Amino acid sequence: MTKITDHIRNANGKPIFSIEVIPPVKGDTLKNLLDNIEPLMAFKPPFIDVTYHREEYIERPLPDGTIQKIVTRKRPGTVGICSAIMHKFGVDPVPHVLCGGFTREETEDFLVDLHYLGIDNVLVLRGDPAKPFNTFKPKDNGYSYASELVEQVANMNNGVYLHEEDTALSPSDFCIGVAGYPEKHFEAVDHEIDFQYLKQKIDKGADYIVTQMFFDNQKYFDFVGKCRQAGITVPIIPGLKPLSTRKQLQVLPRIFHLQMPPDLVTAVEACENDQQARQVGIEWCIQQCRELIAAGAPVLHFYTMGKADNIAKIAKEVF
Ligand SMILES: NC(=O)C1=CN([C@@H]2O[C@H](COP(=O)(O)OP(=O)(O)OC[C@H]3O[C@@H](n4cnc5c(N)ncnc54)[C@H](O)[C@@H]3O)[C@@H](O)[C@H]2O)C=CC1
Ligand SMILES: Nc1nc(=O)c2c([nH]1)NC[C@@H]1CN(c3ccc(C(=O)N[C@@H](CCC(=O)O)C(=O)O)cc3)CN21
Prior knowledge:
CATH architecture: Alpha-Beta Barrel
Distance between the termini: 24 Å
Largest sheet: 9 strands, parallel
Order of helices and strands: HEHEEEHEHEHEHEHEEHHHEH
Bound molecules: 1,4-dihydronicotinamide adenine dinucleotide, 5,10-methenyl-6,7,8-trihydrofolic acid
Number of domains: 1
Strand order of the largest sheet: 9-8-7-6-5-2-1-11-10
């Protein structure tokens, strides 16, 4: 399996198309997901990210007045989907590996499974709070920050597993991606602090950065400039999501803590229906892509969390 950093190197400056998919809700089949991304294979993504979704908590009131807490998982199957993508399309999958919901030992087992399958690329994240909570809580003996998980993966790459009683284990060879926030991670007190923690992830062994989505390229350019100034030399991949409904004008800033450029707001507000908004989202994203490519972005990474027809239209214009 080729590392993401090698895919970038092998492209020799030619921009790469890549996508991110979300596992279907349990009970669904993989077929819809694969059918959806099949048309995008024409644009030859060398890798596809598959998100990971931790457990959620449901609270069920009981007749005796107490509350039963039920733990459930809405979107299981990340590793299976990675394997399917690898074998159906011959594309390198990049599973997301989270701190949330995992002990260190469970993380080690997860990474060992990936290694068995020949999956050597991972995106290492802290992850979101478990629904319905709004603060992140690590599991007992789990990690609070992505940098700690980066360190564990980097240790495994050096043949150092969690427990020294496990002797003579082979080193893994993971290429490690991490998340970066051009508009600051919402929990960070200020840009400076957030930036120090990003630097920490790189210093502990991360090989590249993928950004949170943004709609104003200047945010990405400023972020890259700041990284370079701070001595971060790894590739910085822009993450892009074409706006696709009118509602997203409010929803996306709320979920992902980003600003919508006034021109995009005006254009979407002038739309009479979601079909028109989807078209505005496509055109906006095409402009973003052209400018990013001209500025030398190594990869354009698309968050295709459902229907991918808009991504196909964008890729057709841009690649
Ligand atoms: N489920 C998935 O596949 C994906 C999830 N995400 C998102 O990733 C976000 C958080 O993940 P990461 O960026 O990997 O987290 P991170 O651990 O790098 O940072 C999380 C927050 O903690 C702060 N922080 C980091 N290190 C710290 C330290 N040592 N001491 C104090 N504060 C520290 C950061 O400034 C930031 O506010 C979540 O919002 C999550 O939803 C992003 C992409 C995909
Ligand atoms: N905080 C955070 N959590 C994540 O899981 C996450 C990020 N950020 N940033 C990078 C990627 C991108 N992700 C996503 C997740 C959902 C949509 C999405 O399109 N969601 C809905 C809107 C929200 C809703 O109504 O639920 C959509 O209809 O487009 C996009 C990107 C997942 N990843």
